[in-house]
Every structure is written in structure tokens, then in C-alpha cells.
Request: fold
Amino acid sequence: MNEITGASSRQKVLIVESNDSLAAAFQTRLQEAGFDARTTWSGHEALALLRSTEFDVILMDNYLPDLHATDFLTRLNRMPLQPWVVVMKGDAEAAPVRRYRGLGASSIVNKRDTAQVVQAVATCCAKEPLVRMTVH
Reply:
């Protein structure tokens, strides 16, 4: 267990970020903090991974090349096991924070503040996973 963040090696984070260098930087920082972090650039690939692998937290950019964040969150809400979601935005971006929260995002953070990103992930990992019933 990491004494700073409380993270154990069991806690998995899926990083959904289309910028390869940023994705690698977040992966490195989260691994240094004791998390098992995996990356993908695609919202569609992230949803596919979530069908086969359990993650504790999704760390995602609010702008993905293949799927808007609101569409991603809407699709995620249809899955029975819900990882916590941290949405990252740029400094000057006017992200629809209220809408993201309404769709289940637990945090919206500035992607340029790596310490804030890691802290948001650690805070989520300290919580129990969300479980939602699939509505037919």
C-alpha cells in the first residue's frame, strides 16, 4: 500500500487520453503513486475494455477523437458495475461541469495539474465501487 495515496496494487485506473505523451505521463505518475494504470486513446476502446476488465477509476479527457465525453458517460451508465470517473479538462476549456456530474462524473480536474489528477484518482479509490442496475 502506498502511504501517501492509500492505493494498493489492486486498484486499477483506465486512462482515456488521445494525447500519447500526456497519457504516458499520467500512467507514470499513477504507477509511482501505487496504482495499476492502463491507457487507451479511444472512448470506444475504453467501453470495450470495461466489458472485459474491472477498473476502479476511469481518468478521461473531456475531448476524445471518437466519442464525446457526454456520450461516453451515458453509455457507461448502462453498465452494471460503475467505476468512478474523473474527467480532465484543459486550463481554458469551459467543460459542461454540471452535465458531467449529472452523468456520474465524480470529479472534473485540470489536466495540467498532475498533483490534482492523482489526488482525484486516490480520493475515488478510497470509495466503494458504484453498482447500478441495468435498465431494460
Remarks:
- The chain is about 35% helix and 20% strand.
- The first helix runs from residue 20 to 32.
